[in-house]
Specification:
The complex is a heterotrimer. By secondary structure, chain A is an all-alpha fold. Helix content of chain A is about 60%, strand content about 0%. Chain A contains 30 helices and no strands. In chain A, α13 packs across α16 and α17 runs antiparallel to α18. By secondary structure, chain B is mainly beta. Chain B contains one helix and five strands; from the N terminus they run αβββββ. Chain B has a five-stranded antiparallel beta sheet, with no helix packed on it. In chain B, β2 and β3 form a beta hairpin. The longest helix of chain B is centred in the first third of the chain and has 7 residues. The two termini of chain B are about 35 Å apart. Chain C is of the alpha+beta class. Helix content of chain C is about 20%, strand content about 30%. In chain C, β1 and β2 form a beta hairpin. Chain C is elongated. The chains are: A mainly alpha, B mainly beta, C alpha+beta. Chain A: This is mRNA decay factor PAT1 domain-containing protein. Chain A: Belongs to the PAT1 family. Chain A: GO terms for molecular function: RNA binding. Chain A: It is found in: Cytoplasm, P-body; Nucleus. Chain A: Keywords: Coiled coil, Cytoplasm, Nucleus, RNA-binding.
Chain lengths: ~725, ~100, ~100
Amino acid sequence: MSNFFGFNTVMPGRQGGRVALNLEEQQELDRQVQKYALETGEDFEIYDYGETYDNLADDLEETRDDLNDETFGGGTDFDFARNTRQIAPALKKEEELYIKQNEHGGARRSSFASLWETDGPSQQDTFKKGLPEPSQAASSIWGSFSNTTAKGMELGAGNAGFVHDPVFGTGTFALSRPTAFGNNQPSLEEIEAQLLRTAGTQHQAPMQQERKMMSLEEVEAALMNINGGRPVYSEAMIAEQQAKQASLEQRRAERQAKQAETAKHNGLMTQSDKDFINRIQISQLVTDDPYADDFYCQVYTALRNRHLQQMGVPSNIVESESGQNTRRGNGRTEQRMQQQVQRIVSDAKRNPKRTNVTVEGALGKIAVNSVLNPRQLLQVSKRGSHNESSGGNSPKPPSPGPVSTKSHTVLGWIENVYTYVLALEQKRRQQPPPPRMGEEEIAGEAIRRWNEEYGILARKMWNELRITVPIGVVHPHPFISILNYSKGKKVIPRVLRHLLPEQTLTLLTMLVANFESLNVCKAEVYADVQGNQEIELFMNTIVPPLLGFVSEAPFRIVVGLLALFIERNNMVWVARSKPGLAFLTLFLSRAEILKQGQGNYPIPDEREINQWNELYNRLFSQLQTHFSALFLPKATMAEDVHVWRFLAAMAVGATVDQQHVLVTEVREQVLENVIAAQTTRMAPEKAAQRIGNVNLFLHALGLDASQVAVPAM
Amino acid sequence: MDDHAPLEGAGIEEPLDLVRLSLDERIYVKLRGDRELRGKLHAYDGHLNMVLGDVEETITVVDVNEETAEEVIRIVKRNCEMLFVRGDGVILVSPPSRA
Amino acid sequence: MLFYSFFKTLVGQPVTVELKNDLAITGVLVSVDQFLNIKLDNIKVVDEERYPHMLAVKNCFIRGSVVRYVQLPAPSVDTALLQDAARRERQQPAAGGRK
């Protein structure tokens, strides 16, 4: 783990040379691997510090990392070495402890190092990487340990405590498994001494200990030994051998010098220090928000899976299809990882002052521009405070001052609404779970804080909608301007989810009061395709949720809304539009239901009924002589169903005289439909639909299409 | 998303915020190689990679008559329902020329 | 990461990649990476007469930087979600320092 993320805690010199180069290559490779592993969400076990954890840090206060700044020097000019030096004595103790704990690991490698050391040039050649001299291993286990760690990584194995099976076999030999050494570990000195003893029988020692794999030279040597004779070399071969050996010696000397150079930095950090840093670095790469970087894919896949499941496709197929989500690795490790990350994240939240790119305390800094986060091509420094933002489009809500309604201003409001809606939706995803036994207090605090933050966001969103801007300051009203954009319409159902009932009522009131300035009320929008799309959008996004709201409203509110509607809008104009008719129908039918005592409200009293009748009569008289004009010219099938529905709603509440007026005015349309349905040219289902539409109206009058006498043609 | 700082005064602070205003709106994009696009903006990023819907591409081709050395300007139009545009070819992005 | 995330959902879908040298290749999207490099399978060059040497090629890897457009199957794109994803992308601090 000391080579985590390519961050070599041994701090090798960068003078180049073979070892350093190999290390760098390895680091690069490690980096790639880690990145990939993170990317694919696999290999969580790589980050399992628990396995390599030496328990030295158990004494540390881990739950509250408040003192980290003190411990690690905090600040941007971070000087780890000096701080560590100050506690050198303690470190030394820890180091000793560590050596003892890891003795067999360090010793094992040292022993092999010395073993190969005494074993002639041929083996040296096949084991190019070079291992520390026995003398060095003895004098500074710490140092040699660090070096062998790098070596171990190259050979595919971790350091002493690493859980992964070492793949030592990649070289020319295979180590016997560590367990072969048993529990009763000989001390380093003992091994050393034993090795020196066995060095006398040079060539046989390795042969007996390592059987699994042998290089060509070894096989040759073995054969020679079996034959009882030494290999016969020619003069040239010997000379070559010697030259080779000389160069090897030289290389080894260089390496040693370099190791000695870097060795003075060895042991600056204990394992717990390294683990601590590892954790900080991991915490930067893991987030508690799985949507942060992959929002589209995550949500899209989730939606598709749900869709497929509804269609009866077994979920496991779906799961394997979206393969990215599957994770291997044992659950325990993952769980612990999550816990630790949660702790770090919640800690970061508690200390919001740390807003740096890197968490303070991390050695080095994770590159700001990475593959995950490429450099943005356009970067303009943000202006500090929003006070200086240009006056014209200041988002200060809801200032009754001069509010311009240029298109980009309105678009800006809409995008701000989206910003808060997205933030609110994100907040809902992060809603704290209900308190568990014994944790009520902590959970209660979290819930309280969550509610507070949620409330703030909801209030900001509400302000951004500009519903409370007084009527008449600007025309059209800012809220209506928002609704005149298709994305403004689309956001309304999502907005309504976060509004309080009284806010919804305010929204509805404002909409009703300014209805005629909606672009969907303009007659010309019916002319082109785009206009029709806007109308459809309005009918699909804004009408349904408000319909839901009105269909639960008490009589008093319905009366109030209709009164406002009639008073503030030209009814003939509004009723010609599909949305306008939809709202009228909505109010009329709701009032009718409440008048009949349905719904969960008491039957309205006489005064209210009178009020309503007065309203109805006003509406009727305004629309009188215009009823047939509600039908759009060249009305095609099914497109006038909303008109029939409205006529039906009118008919239900009408007096006999009014019903008579209604029938007279739309008589032509009724006849037209009935006749058209009876002609043979029309498909049966279309004919049925037309009759159905007419019957909507006729049934409300107690009539039926079949009673309509068709005049002879 | 967890801190509100970036949301405060979520007005227009950098050029890309202007592009954001055009999300779900039709835009005009000028590209290298005498190409122009008009379409509805569905997504963009800091490189000005974009996804556009209902796109109309206009390519201006200048044919040179070899004999007279006369330049003939030819305009080719193509349509595409959904198009990813790589940002490195983008010269400018603007709302369509209507009011 | 928005478009990487986006393209991941299109794996297995037929797309047409148009390169900056006007070569257009239709094929099934096999994979995509953070650089928006693209792997295609069962490829077919749109203008085979102009590029006969591509006839024998059955699959290919396209470096992201040479892409001009990618034509996408519109039904496989959730535009509302995509717009939201673009909005979220902008809100993340420019430095990417999330927690």
